[in-house]
Design brief:
It is a single chain. The protein has helices spanning 9-12, 19-24, 27-35, 50-53, 56-72, 86-95, 120-130, 147-164, 166-172, 183-191, 211-219, 224-237, 244-257, 273-287, 309-314, 353-370, 385-406, 417-427, 433-441, and strands spanning 5-7, 75-79, 110-114, 135-141, 173-177, 194-197, 262-267, 295-300, 319-328, 375-382. The protein is α/β, with parallel strands linked by helices and 443 residues long. α16 (353-370) links the parallel β9 (319-328) and β10. The N and C termini lie far apart (60 Å). Bound molecules: 5-phosphoarabinonic acid. Residues 81-84, 141-143, 146, 149, 203-205, 285, 413 line the site of 5-phosphoarabinonic acid (PA5).
């Protein structure tokens, strides 16, 4: 079995002697407390052995629902925010063509995302785009009460019913939500929508391998069996105390203790942009608490070398980089010849574009290391479902271990409620009268 690889030599060289060993001495306890469910947040460990517990019957249900949606929709809108959307988007964008959907040839539905912002223009333009289209909706919300998603769903439900009739709308609106609680569950039950349950013990940011991620990914036409198999193989490979998951978790904590407070996730493939976004949420929400935590940042190279390159090369030396590198791209494009050679690039003629990209990657690594930036590499043999499954579980488990090494509860997110409380108080939501008065006196 080929696996993703971890390369650490260009990061460990920045650490004082014994740093890895000092953090590493705490790994056994962290791994054991995950396995024995004795760690803080132990009621949210449903993701830990999720890959190995997914049954063929469950995947068949997901695929059957996806087949119905694909057969009846030219466009599928995935409504969800944070953990209820980023994983699906990350996988779909990593695997899909970046342009095919613009000229949709009918073989795959266009997948759009909504419910992840409160932009009035975004929602207006979405509704305009959907006019006349045979669209369906996957409404994803664990709590079933998230404002951004609920707002988009109100608009989408009405438009779908108006355009396609109530009966068809019932077939092409699917809910992924809590088994019993929340508005999304109540609506799904009342309307008779097909629905899937988000397990209680899986937090949003760890939910990509539940129907939250699997259903949209299957709807986009990708192989969820291979995705789950990749995750399963990484689950099996990360049970002991010394493996690439624990090595990454230890190394980033050792770097943090040595003053490297910011981790930048880097890709050299624009298709991985949303994988960066997914990773930022996973690590940001898991570790940023109690006044601690590595700040997770992300860049797309070489694009962002032309914007963030200066800061990374010579700014405050509190950063380290983790590069997700794809060994072999799917397609071949050769550097073209030009008779005039005004740009002086004919010396590259006939080379694969990826060879140029790889030299940019190597050149950047060496420059950044020279500039004092520790560099970790996570190498994927190819960008396919199987290796993405490995990568997802790799980052999830490393996040759990890493948060425990840091000494926080990696599975809660008390901080995200603060803005919601203020927003509802400012909007005068019933039940928020006292908060309303208090907040208005501050303005
Ligand atoms: O990770 C999390 O818990 C959050 O990002 C949630 O996924 C996000 O707030 C959406 O919540 P819900 O699924 O309840 O609508």
């Amino acid at each position: 079995m080929k696996t993703i690889r971890l390369e650490v030599a260009k990061a460990t060289s920045f650490l004082p002697e014994g740093a890895i060993e000092r953090v590493g001495a705490r790994v056994h306890n962290a791994q054991q407390s995950l396995e024995e469910a004795t760690c803080p947040g132990n009621d949210f460990l449903g993701w830990l052995h999720l890959p190995s517990s997914i049954t063929p019957e469950f995947l068949a249900e997901i695929k059957a629902c996806a087949t119905t949606l694909r057969a009846n929709c030219d466009t599928i809108v995935v409504a969800g925010i944070g953990g209820s959307y980023l994983g699906a988007r990350a996988v779909i964008e990593a695997l899909g063509s970046q342009f095919e959907w613009l000229t949709n040839d009918g073989s795959n539905p266009v997948i759009l995302f909504a419910g992840n912002n409160i932009g009035e223009d975004y929602l207006y333009e979405l509704c305009e785009y959907l006019k006349g289209r045979k669209f369906g909706v996957i409404n994803i919300s664990k709590s079933g009460t998230t404002t951004e998603t609920a707002l988009a769903f109100r608009l989408l439900k009405k438009q779908c019913e108006d355009q396609r009739g109530k009966d068809v709308a019932r077939q092409v609106i699917v809910a992924v939500t809590d088994a019993k609680r929340g508005a999304a569950r109540t609506t799904a039950d009342q309307e008779g929508y097909t629905s899937f349950v988000i397990p209680d013990n899986v937090g949003g940011r760890f939910s990509v391998l539940t129907p939250v991620g699997l259903l949209p990914i299957a709807c986009a036409g990708f192989d969820v069996d291979a995705l789950v198999q990749g995750a399963r193989d990484m689950e099996a490979a990360s049970a002991d105390d010394d493996n690439i998951v624990t090595q990454y978790a230890v190394l980033r904590n050792a770097l943090y203790e040595a003053g490297k407070k910011i981790e930048i996730l880097v890709n050299f493939q624009p298709k991985l942009h949303y994988m960066n976004e997914w990773w930022k949420q996973l690590y940001g929400e898991s570790e940023g608490k109690d006044g601690k935590g590595i700040f997770p940042a992300a860049v797309d190279f070489t694009t962002d070398l032309h914007s963030m390159g200066q800061w990374i090369q010579e700014g405050e030396r509190t950063i380290f980089e983790t590069v997700v590198s794809v060994e072999t791209p799917r397609h071949t494009v050769l550097f073209p010849h030009d008779d005039e050679n005004l740009d002086g690039l004919n010396f590259l003629e006939g080379k694969r574009v990826d060879e140029v990209n790889k030299m940019a990657e190597l050149g950047t690594q060496l420059a950044h290391v020279d500039g004092g930036v520790p560099n970790i590499r996570v190498v994927m043999p190819e960008l396919n479902e199987y290796y993405l499954g490995q990568l997802i579980y790799f980052f999830e488990r490393a996040c759990g271990v890493s948060g425990l090494l840091l000494g926080v509860n990696p599975f809660n997110q008390p901080g995200v409620e603060a803005y919601k409380k203020n927003m509802f108080a400012l909007l005068g939501k019933p039940g928020y009268e006292a908060e309303s008065e208090a907040i208005k006196s501050r303005l």
